[in-house]
Write a structure and sequence with these properties.
The complex is a heterodimer. Chain A has one helix at 2-13, and strands at 17-18, 31-37, 42-47, 52-57, 61-66, 72-77, 83-89, 94-99, 103-108, 114-119, 124-129, 135-140, 145-149, 154-159, 166-171, 177-182, 187-191, 197-201, 208-213, 219-224, 229-233, 238-242, 250-255, 261-266, 278-282, 287-292, 299-304, 310-315, 319-325. By secondary structure, chain A is mainly beta. In chain A, a hairpin with a 4-residue loop joins strand 20 and strand 21. In chain B, the strands form two sheets. In chain B, strands 1, 4, 8, 9 and 10 form a five-stranded mixed beta sheet that branches. In chain B, helix 1 (8-17) runs antiparallel to helix 2 (29-39). Classes of the chains: A mainly beta, B alpha/beta. Chain A binds chain B through residues 162-165, 167, 183-185, 204-207, 209, 225-227, 249, 269-273, and chain B through 49-57, 98, 102-104, 106, 133-135, 144, 152, 154.
Chain lengths: 326, 210
C-alpha cells in the first residue's frame, strides 16, 4: 500500500521536462530558452549564475533544472515544511532555503545534501548574503531585520522600521551598508558593523518593493509603488532622480554585473494576478532599452548572468518558461 | 489629553489624603486605587497588518466621499481613548482604504485622509464601503493612530455585513487569515429608504500608554 501510494505520488507529482528553445530573432526580443512542465503551482523561481533554475512548488518541493541542457538536477522534497525563500549562493553551488517554520538551510545544489541549518525563530521571507559571504540579513513574519555572522550562524543584532513589513533588503557591494525598505514608505540605510541607522530616505510617498545597488556602490535604485525607479545617492540617502513612471508599480529589480542595465518587474497593484511586464532600463540614462509587456506575461523572478544575459521566468500552474534577453 | 487632568488613581489618593475617603479594609489606598483603575481598564484595540498601500502626506479632511463615487455611503465614527477611558484629544488618526471596486488610489489620495479630531477625542469621516481587494478576503479600512506618550496603533476595521462572514462573523471572522481578532469586525447600522441607504459604523480606538 505504501509503495503504491508512493508510486502514485511520484506519478502525480512527477515533473516532466521538455526543451523548446527557438533561435534568437533578429529584433533581439526575448528568447524562449526552455519550457519546463510542472504539475504544480510554482510559488517563485531563482536563477544561479551558472545557468540553473530553482522552482519552488506548492507541494513543498524545490525542483532544480539546468537551463542549458534541460536536465532535471534535483527534486528536493521537504514534505511538511514549506519553503518561503530560495536563492543560489557560491556561483550556484549552494542553495539557501528559508522555511515557514523559521529554519534556514544551506544545501548543496547538485545533491540536495544539507550543509548547514540555522534557526531564525520566524519565517524568513527575504534572505540576503553580502558579497563577501560574511553577513546574512533576514526578515519576514517578525517584521524585524536580523543581521547574522553567516559563518558562525549567529545573529549579531536585530533592528526594525517603525511600521509595517519589510519589503526588500540589499547589501552594498562592500557589505558596509544594508538597505531596507518598509511599508512605512521609508528606505533605511544601516551600518552593518554597528547596526546603527546611517540614513533614512523619508521622502518617498509609497512603498519601495525592490532595492538594488550599483556595482560601484555609489547609487541605490529603489523600485516603488509610485511606478517609478528612484535613484538614491548611497552616501547621503538623498533621492537624486527618478526614471519615467510606468503603468504599474515596480515589484522587483535586478542590476547587470557591469552596472549598465536594470531589469524591473512591474505588477498591477490592483490586480495581483494580472500581467507583470518586464522592462530593461539603461541605468545611467533612465531610458527604456527593451520592453516585455505582452499580455499573459507573468514574470516570477529574474537575474543577470555574468555575460550580461538577463534570464527571467514566467510561470503558470503547469509550467515554467525561461526567457532570455541580451 | 490635558496634562493637568487627574486619573482615577490620582483622584482617590487625593481624596484619601483629604479625609474624604475612609477605607474599611487593610489595603493601602494606593493598592485600592490600582485595583479600581485595573477593574475599569479598557483593552487596547487589537493591532492588525499595516499593508503595502500606505501613502504619506494624505490631506486632513473628514469628507473622503466625492460626488459621483460608486458605493454604499459610509460614516465611521468613534473616540480615541487610552486604556483608562481618558480621551486622547491630541491623537492623530489616518485612514486609507480601497474604493467600491477594491482598488487603491496610488496616484492621488482618494479614500485617504488624516481625520481631524473633535472634542473628547471624537472622530468621524464619510466615505464609501470599501470593495474586496483581489488578494484580500475581507473589506477593510486601514487605521494609523498616534498620540504622544502612547504606543502607535496600526489596525484595520472590518464590517459585520461583509458577505464573506455569511451573516455570522462570530463563526466566520477567521476566513480572512489576516483577521486575528473578532473585535475588529464591527456592526453596521443601515439607515434610510431603499434608494438612499447609508451605512454607519462605530469604531472606538483605544491606545496603550508607553
Amino acid at each position: 500500500m505504501g509503495r503504491l501510494a508512493l508510486a502514485l505520488a511520484v506519478l502525480v507529482l512527477a515533473v516532466t521536462f521538455s526543451w523548446a528553445a527557438r533561435p534568437a530573432t533578429e529584433d533581439s526580443g526575448p528568447r524562449l530558452e526552455s519550457k519546463i512542465a510542472v504539475n504544480n503551482e510554482v510559488r517563485f523561481t531563482a536563477f544561479s549564475p551558472d545557468g540553473k533554475i530553482a522552482g519552488v512548488l506548492k507541494s513543498n518541493k524545490i525542483g532544480l533544472w539546468s537551463i542549458t541542457d534541460g536536465q532535471q538536477i534535483q527534486m528536493l522534497d521537504f514534505r511538511t515544511e514549506q519553503p518561503v525563500f530560495a536563492d543560489f549562493l557560491d556561483e550556484g553551488k549552494q542553495l539557501l532555503v528559508g522555511f515557514d517554520n523559521g529554519q534556514i538551510q544551506l544545501l548543496e545544489a547538485q545533491t540536495g545534501k544539507r550543509v548547514r541549518s540555522l534557526e531564525n525563530g520566524a519565517p524568513a521571507w527575504i534572505v540576503r548574503v553580502s558579497g563577501d559571504g560574511k553577513l546574512m540579513a533576514t526578515t519576514g513574519a517578525n517584521r524585524e531585520i536580523e543581521v547574522w555572522d553567516f559563518a558562525a550562524g549567529k545573529v549579531l543584532y536585530r533592528t526594525a522600521p517603525n511600521l509595517g513589513d519589510i519589503e526588500d533588503l540589499a547589501f552594498s557591494p562592500d557589505g558596509g551598508t544594508l538597505a531596507s525598505s518598509a511599508d512605512d514608505t521609508n528606505v533605511y540605510l544601516w551600518d552593518t558593523k554597528t547596526g546603527q541607522q546611517k540614513a533614512i530616505v523619508s521622502n518617498l510617498l509609497l512603498t519601495t518593493f525592490g532595492l538594488v545597488y550599483a556595482p560601484d556602490g555609489k547609487s541605490l535604485y529603489a523600485g516603488s509603488g509610485d511606478r517609478t525607479i528612484h535613484v538614491i545617492e548611497a552616501a547621503s540617502g538623498k533621492v537624486t532622480r527618478g526614471f519615467p513612471a510606468q503603468k504599474y508599480p515596480v515589484v522587483a529589480l535586478s542590476m547587470s554585473p557591469d552596472g549598465q542595465r536594470i531589469a524591473a518587474v512591474y505588477r498591477d497593484a490592483n490586480e495581483p494576478n494580472g500581467d507583470t511586464p518586464v522592462l530593461l532600463w539603461n541605468a545611467k540614462l533612465g531610458e527604456v532599452l527593451q520592453r516585455v509587456d505582452a499580455p499573459g506575461v507573468k514574470a516570477n523572478g529574474c537575474r543577470f548572468l555574468s555575460n550580461g544575459r538577463l534570464l527571467y521566468s514566467t510561470t503558470s500552474s503547469k509550467e515554467i518558461m525561461v526567457w532570455s534577453l541580451h | 489629553m490635558r496634562k493637568d487632568r487627574l486619573t482615577r488613581r490620582d483622584l482617590i489618593e487625593k481624596c484619601a489624603a483629604l479625609g474624604v475617603v475612609i477605607t474599611a479594609t487593610n489595603l493601602p489606598i494606593s493598592a485600592i486605587a490600582k485595583i479600581w483603575d485595573e477593574s475599569e481598564a479598557r483593552r487596547p484595540t487589537p493591532p492588525n497588518d499595516f499593508g503595502p498601500f500606505y501613502k504619506k502626506d494624505s490631506p486632513t479632511r473628514r469628507e473622503l466621499r466625492m460626488s459621483g463615487d460608486t458605493g454604499l455611503p459610509l460614516t465611521v465614527k468613534g473616540r480615541v481613548l487610552d486604556t483608562r477611558g481618558e480621551a486622547l484629544e491630541d491623537a492623530k488618526v489616518e485612514i486609507w482604504h480601497a474604493d467600491h471596486f477594491g482598488h487603491y488610489d496610488i496616484d492621488g489620495y482618494h479614500f485617504r485622509g488624516q481625520i481631524p479630531l473633535e472634542a473628547k477625542g471624537e472622530y468621524s469621516f464619510d466615505s464609501v464601503m470599501p470593495g474586496h481587494y483581489p488578494s484580500r478576503v475581507c473589506q477593510h479600512v486601514h487605521f494609523l493612530v498616534t498620540a504622544p506618550g502612547h504606543k502607535t496603533l496600526v489596525t484595520q476595521l472590518y464590517f459585520a455585513t461583509d458577505p464573506v462572514f455569511e451573516g455570522d462573523p462570530d463563526k466566520n471572522f477567521n476566513r480572512d487569515p489576516l483577521l486575528m481578532s473578532r473585535e475588529l469586525v464591527r456592526p453596521v447600522v443601515l439607515t434610510g429608504d431603499p434608494k438612499t441607504i447609508h451605512a454607519a459604523v462605530n469604531f472606538e480606538l483605544c491606545l496603550e500608554r508607553l
